[in-house]
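To whoever picks this up:

The nightly regression suite flagged Arylsulfatase A family protein as changed. Nothing in the input moved, so I suspect the structure step. Input below, exactly as stored in the fixture:
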Amino acid sequence: MKIAKPLFALLTLLLLTASVSANELPNIVVFLSDDHTLTDSSLYGSTDLQTPNMERIAKAGMTFDRAFVASPSCAPSRAALLTGLMPSRNGAEPNHSRPRKEIKKLPAYFQELGYEVVSFGKVGHYAQTPEYGFDIARHFKYHEDVAVPEALKWLKARESEKPLLLFVGTNWPHVPWPKAEDIDPKTIKIPLTHVHTPKTRAARAKYYQAIKTMDRELGEVYDLAYEKLGQDTLFLHTSDHGAQWPFSKWTLYDDGIRTPMIAVWPGKIEPGQRTDAMVSWVDILPTLYAATGQTPPEELDGRSFLPVLLGETKTHRDEIFTVHSGDGNNNVYPTRSVRTGRWKYIRNLHPEYKFLSHVTNVKKEDAYWPSWENKAKTGKEAARKVKRYLERPAEELYDLEADPSEQTNLATDPQHAETLDQLRGKLDAWMKEQGDQQKVYGEPTLLNPS
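Regenerated output under the current build:
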């Protein structure tokens, strides 16, 4: 007997839902921070900024030392998270762009299993958030900072028996940074990549204040999640990319793409664990889906790292690929990279372009970049850092074991020609597989205009 395709699909879905309902589905809570550089937290080595809630939560679960986003700007990073596909395949390449409508989004996977899928705050890219299909999407406008307290209020009052997948996205520490009320600028250690000026120190104090707010909100959401939802709750914290500092956001250096990630699941994830497994943001969707007992679709770019969480394996990926396609006319600088455990290869598709960004272009009263330019007029080291930010070679190669801050480009060193060639080949093959068109978005600024 032949069954019409729509009817067969409906029956399959009903059978799937019934089989899943027979088992206890875990609640899932994901807390996203916004523009947070991993090393700017005590959990990841900072000695001048304490993030006590990150540390407390890490003690209850697993900390990832090598988690990476797919792209270091907000919209493509979040689109990759919510589709399980890299930017070239989901269509959201430059900042402010959207994934294609026909692509299945994260909420749909879980709604089919009977979940209520809810979003508070910046989860998608601001007003794009409802387009992903959440059952509830609230307080997603730019720096709508009531989002986290409203999420807490909603969760406290929730009475539904349905399993819950809750995303809470704080706007911190995204700019504009708040006044530094309980941060002493004198205690701040200026990073190696920064130019030391009073403006830099003052800006970092405000940035630290924003991180403290994020850390507090993280703790509040974590505590209420387990108080309200019980122990069979998978909790995940991570950030969409690094902060709005030079050599961080909009770049493929580790300060731009390497991100905090902590996972807690009492009784499933051994507490107090740290892992070197390399994972990508595209892996989050299939991992959460696998945590419900399902098999993630093979057509996704992401792969479940649930076996890492459960202690069944210590490794996940051998390479991490990342892309950046620009941010309006403020940043027209497409780049691609491949990173292994030891090596990072970056390909700057148009080295004839000047690297500009909101850092260099936004000249507000408290902007720090003008102070870098002024110091570069007389200081050699400041001049080197400013020049390095604005001008990039076609290729960059870094030995991350010897040079974790990515200061010495080995791309022209004959001793590393074989490594360079291998990584070129890996990136070429991956870009071809992805259908990467290497498109330029926006109007570039040339280093040497004719």
